[in-house]
Amino acid sequence: MLFRNQPTRVPAWAAFRFRLWTRVCYTLHDKAFKLARPHTWDHFSLRGHHRGARATGFLPWKTAGCDCAFLVDDTHGNPVSGITLSNFSILENKNPPQSVVALRTAKEMPLRIGLLIDTSNSQRKSDLYGPGVKATLEFLAQELSGRDDKAFIVSFSDTVRATDFLGRDQIVELKFDVARGVGTALYEAIYFSCMDRMKPDPARPARRVLVLLSDGEDNLSHVNRMETVPAAQATGTLIFTVSTEGQGRYASQAQGDTALKHFATDTGGNAFSDLTPRDMPKVFAKIKAQIDDMYSVTFIPAEFDQSRSSHPIELKITSDRKWEARAPKGYYVPAATQ
Questions:
Q1: What does each C-alpha distance from 264 to 23, 50, 211, 239, 329 come to in angstroms?
Q2: Would you say the C-alpha torsion 183, 186, 191, 192 has a positive or negative sign?
């Protein structure tokens, strides 16, 4: 007869696998990061926050005009350089804007990038997770090439933990915690990253990017998927997603890839799925190339709608039908214009 307070005995083989996996994970991350101060990481949670207090379209910060970040790909999916105002058109609410104020290239804007890494238990069974983490860290060290480029790292499972914005030297000295939780607060991690870390500075335009490594599953967030995309659109943040599901997955697992594609498509980023471990370095090399050729256009809307809902926007390449523009599907009128 078993009693409730009787401890469950863990089979020897299960305990051995757990210890082996933990040692492999710590070895992988210890090679990538050096020991850093423990106060580098902060915890974040939306528990106890009133839903009505969250920003779902209204920008509490003030900017001049509306900004739209975008990418341009050729027929092979490679970024196109040298885009000018004569190469594309903008339609907001199916009407041209009142005026276009400025077009900036990647070289004119410092980088503000967030690396979001899923550390939930579901990643243990993924053959892509180890190679993916290694590739993300190498990518981040290479991408922070400018003097004013900054990055932060978020690890999320049942809790969301994030660093402040750090420079390249600080990033390579950071200790990445591989402690795993039983649940996944993916949407909460994206929402926090956008609304807390990616607030636009009108005096300092920047490329704002999130790179997400995850299987796309969420079971603990206090915001839903439909609230995360507006948070990214409201801050002009492009999301790149890299799936850890791999090939030959079940239909239920494909739902996570669908969510990842949704985040990327609606914000102007790119989604990568159906990968093998060998694909990881190539994927992050492609993400780097696209970030290095990002654009941002500032425009004055034809009409300043006083509502706080998203306004549909469509950016099209007019000079070459073979080129494709990747841009957010919506924008938000800044507080200064309301």
A1: 33, 27, 10, 5, 11
A2: positive
Structure tokens at 236: 């002009």
CATH of domain 108-291: 3.40.50.410
Q: What is the residue type of 109?
A: M
The pair phi, psi for residue 314, each rounded to 5°, is -135, 120
CB 28 within 8 A of CB 257: no
Q: Which DSSP state fits 73?
A: E
- pLDDT, tens digit (0-9, with 9 covering 90-100), for 202-253: 889 999 999 999 999 999 999 999 899 999 999 999 999 999 998 765 655 6
- Rounded Cα distance between 278 and 94, Å, is 43
The residue type found at 221 is S
Tens of pLDDT along 50-61? Answer: 343 344 444 444
- Cα gap 19→24, rounded to integer Å: 9
Work out the widest C-alpha separation in the chain, in whole angstroms: 79
Number of other residues whose CB lies within 10 A of the CB of residue 258: 11
By the 8 A CB rule, do 245 and 253 touch?
yes
pTM, two decimal places: 0.83
Which ranges in 105-240 belong to alpha helices (H)?
129-143, 168-172, 186-192, 225-235
Long-range pairs for 199-206: beta carbons < 8 A, 24 or more residues apart: 199/61, 199/235, 200/59, 200/61, 200/63, 200/67, 200/235, 200/236, 202/61, 202/62, 202/63, 202/64, 204/110, 205/67, 205/104, 205/108, 205/109, 205/296, 205/298, 206/109, 206/110, 206/111, 206/112
Q: Where are the chain's structural domains? A: 66-106+295-337, 108-291
pLDDT digits (tens, 9 = 90+) for 15-28: 444 444 444 443 44
Q: Which whole-number Å values give the CA distances from 173 to 33, 35, 90, 112, 180, in the listed order?
A: 6, 6, 43, 19, 21
Strand partners, 243: 214
